[in-house]
Structures are given as C-alpha cells and as structure tokens.
Specification:
Length: about 190
C-alpha cells in the first residue's frame, strides 16, 4: 500500500438554521436589555453562536475513522476513505419543504448516507487511482431511488474527492452548495 504524499486536515463547521435563529433572537434580546441600563454599566456581549466544528487529520501516520451521522439541522455531511482518496460531501436540505409538512433533513441525510455507501463501494483498481465524485453522486441518488426510500423533498449536494497520492482535488456540485480551499496561511486558493 502506498503511503500518502500529502498531509490533509479536513474541517467541517455547521449550525442548524433553527439554532442560529434562536441564538440571534436571544442575542438581540440581551442587547435590548443592556440598552436599558446606564452606559457606564454596559458590557460588551460576545457574539458566539453554537457552531459545531469537527477536524479530521488524515496523513501518513493518522488513522481514519468514518463519521457517524451528525445532527446539522436540515443539512448533512459524510466522509469516506477509498484507498488513497478522502471522499467527503455535504447536502443542504431545502427548508421550504417545512411549509408542506415535510422534514427536509430526511432527504439530505438519506442522500449523504447513500453517498457514503457509494463512495465506500467505488471501484479503484490501484492505490493511486482517483475516485470520481460525479459518479459517487450519481450512484448515490440512483440507489436511493432504487431502494424506494420515502424521502420527500430536495437538497443541494457537493461531493469532493482528494487524492492523498497526488494532492488533486476533484468535485461534483448540484445546486448552490460551495466550498473553499485554504492553504497553510489560511488564504483561499
């Protein structure tokens, strides 16, 4: 087995729309209450929304463990490793389905669960071969439909595959989900 040539750190950050809205409402309430106090007694109120962050270090000496399902509100994410490929993705459930009585998180979580399975079952002949994120996305949705999953709704999805042998990043995107690649100085590339 080839050793990875690249050290990789994958970070995921998320907050559900409901939790964010509740936090902002409470924050505004605190500011209004403080506004009623004399200026000398006012303190700075830190804005620190409860954003959940997970950092995954994948490299020559780092082990890899797949993530369990993560409660990200209507959103969902996955990670998988195929030989020398780190495959990861995010799906953003369309919140407008709530108005119709449909939980949009069911669709996005089902889609990422099928994406993780499709990634794990990807055929990669050699350790250095690259996984195809477009094929993973296509097979995930096809499997979801074939299994007749009663997941009504819709979602955007972004699937990426990083070759740990070559450092090449391949992506497939459906909808308005996006990503940013940061270098060691945390500058966007």
């Amino acid at each position: 087995m080839l050793a990875p040539r690249f050290q990789t750190v994958l970070a995921s950050a998320w907050i559900s729309k409901r939790v964010a809205a509740k936090y902002v409402q409470e924050y505004i309430k605190q500011i209004r209450e403080q506004g009623k106090q004399p200026e000398a007694k006012r303190e700075v109120i830190a804005f620190a929304p409860p954003i959940q962050v997970q950092v995954l270090d994948v490299g020559e000496s780092a082990s890899y463990e797949a993530l369990d399902a993560i409660n990200g509100g209507e959103d969902s994410l996955f990670h998988a490793r195929i030989k020398q490929n780190l495959v990861f993705g995010v799906s953003d459930g369309v919140g407008g389905w709530n108005e119709s009585g449909i939980d949009p998180s069911v669709f996005s979580r089902s889609l990422t669960a099928y994406s993780a399975t499709a990634a794990e079952r990807s055929f990669v002949l050699h350790d250095s071969d690259e996984a195809d994120p477009k094929d993973i996305m296509r097979r995930a949705f096809a499997s979801m439909r074939y299994d007749n999953i009663p997941a009504y709704g819709s979602a955007t999805e972004l699937v990426a595959s990083l070759s740990l042998a070559s450092g090449k990043l391949r992506t497939a995107q459906l909808g308005d989900s996006t990503y940013v690649v940061l270098d060691q100085k945390q500058k966007a590339r």
